[in-house]
Hints:
The radius of gyration is 20 Å and the shape is globular. The mean pLDDT is 82. It contains 8 helices and no strands. The longest helix is centred in the first third of the chain and has 23 residues, at 21-43. The chain has 2 domains: 4-97, RNA polymerase sigma factor, region 2, helix turn helix motif (Rna Polymerase Sigma Factor, Chain: A, Orthogonal Bundle), CATH 1.10.1740.10; 119-189, Orthogonal Bundle (Arc Repressor Mutant, subunit A), CATH 1.10.10. 69% of the residues lie in helices and 0% in strands. α1 (9-17) crosses α2, α2 packs antiparallel against α3 and α6 (142-153) packs across α8 (169-189). The protein has 196 residues and is mainly α.
Amino acid sequence: MQKLNQLTDEQLVAAYAKGSNEAFDTLLNRHSDRVYSYIQHIVKDSALADDIFQETFVKAITTIKQGRYSESGKFSAWITRIAHNLIIDNFRQEKSENTFSADTDDVDIFNRRDLADGNIEDTLVKEQIHTDVRRIMDSLPDSQREVIDMRFFRDMSFKEIAEATGVSINTALGRMRYAVLNMRRIADKNNIVLTV
């Protein structure tokens, strides 16, 4: 069998779809610098660029694993388009969160719940959510619980998680995906609401 580095992107995608995680690692290594540079150039914020970069490859993994990747173009253009769409989604979300209308007299833009100091009810609800999340995490397999803890409670990037756990970035991303899916399933099954 050819070395993975000698395969085309399309051959690597096909190999990954058939279960070769090393094939996706090769794709990731081949395209990560360019995709990250593209994201960083547009958003100009390293933390946001890291998040969008990771989300880009999670989306790519999901799409390929679900058999929805079509070979209509080059992989590099496809992965860049995913990153571009996620950047636009982020800007839209940011804009909608920061938009106020001054046309109505009955709205006081400074009398907003999110600008106020938290009250005791909010504090109690947040503490309950935190307790519920921890309880759900405890029911996850060790590898999934570990990646959730590192990502959300220690604020580690997927690259740092992969290095700390001795696995590929692809494996770390996969563990995160399954952990989130399992947490949602457990929350739904037990009627646990994890939002304020």
